Amino acid sequence: MVSLLASGAASSAGTTAWVALAYLAAGVLFILALRGLSSPETSRAGNRFGMIGMLIAVVTTLVTHSIASIYEILIAVAIGGLIGFTIARRIAMTAMPELVAAFHSLVGLAAVLVGWAAFLEPGAFGLLVGDTIGQVSRVEMALGVAIGAITFSGSVIAFAKLSGRMSGSPILLPMRHVINLGTLVAIIVLTALFTMGEIASQDYFIAITVLAFLVGFLLIIPIGGADMPVVVSMLNSYSGWAAAAMGFTLGNSAMIITGALVGASGAILSYIMCKAMNRSFISVIAGGFGADDSGGGDGEPREQRPYKQGSAADAAFMLEQAEKVIIIPGYGMAVAQAQHALREMCDLLEEKGVEVKFAIHPVAGRMPGHMNVLLAEASVDYDKVFELEDINSEFAQADVAFIIGANDVVNPAAKTDKSSPIYGMPVFDVDKAKQVFFIKRSMGGVGYAGVDNDVFYMDQTMMLLSDAKKMVEEIVKGLD
């Protein structure tokens, strides 16, 4: 009997060591994935590392836990895989921001469902201490459910704003700061009561869940379109922390590692983007600014001021004469899906001996890295793409600044107008270029920040009023 027990203990220890090693390997691969995704050149390798790490984590969990029959699990995986494959095949690159927001909402909802499953069946999760759920487990469950619920409802609002199902303009409720703070304080108090009670009260747990859903909604609706890239990054961070909290509840070290990595990286990215906008993270969460813009610039002009309008033929002729051209893409390029035509224009200019570079602002588009993804899809060489701090000084030597669909990120009001909502945000110095071409659909739109742009009216600016893709294609014909 003693030898049998010893043998069983050794076997259990061996299994535990194997599981720990597998989860450690998965964690290392996740770290390598994040490192790879930090650069366009290594992003493919980073994705592969992440996929392999997740495969190891999932297989290890399935092998070591009696969750359900393998057939049920395979059916669920097949259904989910088919849905994911279908979405990935059909989704347009312009819809990637709202897709990311939708994925964040699913992570948050999963955290809520896991938390409630653990609350309703604590014995199955090994959370019982005597006849009730242990206090440490209650803290983990409450935090996981609260963060998950905030992530879910906040991501749903972000999805609605990004997809145009809801206005991108900030919805400012009266006394919103007091309401938000009061709701967050109530969640903290309820969590304390839920944790310190003799039993785990279902009423407290329900209240925590409902208020967390509510505060996620309240936190995102006042945030305007100009801050949406930060919101997407912030929600990514929330989803990571929710997963990490559930990892503690489930006793799964892979979830803890993965959630912590996602949460920390999302928080760091949000900080970097806020710094790029010269805004504090708290101000983005608490307020937000911006007016709705469809990306096309339609609407009534704010002010009738004289401007120069040119044609594709004019632009093609002057681009051919240039020695150095810097292209600044924005969300309008994404809406028009003009990246492939732009790459073709770039290739023709380089054949004629023109130096072409791309300038990417950290908050261009509707999510972090949006423009980088679009240019990579069009096979633009990575070494031609530069961030703001690396290329801004070169505009003074540029013959042409070619702006396609961008607006706020080139607006000099950020440097000169203290009353402007974008004042202090670093922008491209396109006003220093010898010639500026500005593609937008009409003079009506003023960008997400809701302010006019003096670049439209500069002496060296030529407005090319048309759909971005159509205009670039006409320029390409003029270059042939």
Automatic annotation (TrEMBL):
A GO molecular function held by the record: proton-translocating NAD(P)+ transhydrogenase activity
Reaction(s) the record says it catalyses: NAD(+) + NADPH + H(+)(in) = NADH + NADP(+) + H(+)(out)
Transmembrane segments: 17-37, 49-67, 73-92, 99-119, 139-160, 181-199, 205-223, 254-274
Family matches, as SUPFAM superfamilies: DHS-like NAD/FAD-binding domain
UniProt cross-references to InterPro entries, sorted A to Z: DHS-like_NAD/FAD-binding_dom, NADH_DH_b, PNTB-like
Location within or outside the cell: Cell inner membrane
Key words, A-Z: Cell inner membrane, Cell membrane, Membrane, NAD, NADP, Translocase, Transmembrane, Transmembrane helix
Role of this protein: The transhydrogenation between NADH and NADP is coupled to respiration and ATP hydrolysis and functions as a proton pump across the membrane.
Subunit structure of this chain's protein: Complex of an alpha and a beta chain; in Rhodospirillum, the alpha chain seems to be made of two subunits.
Protein name according to UniProt: NAD(P) transhydrogenase subunit beta
Organism of origin: Pontixanthobacter aquaemixtae
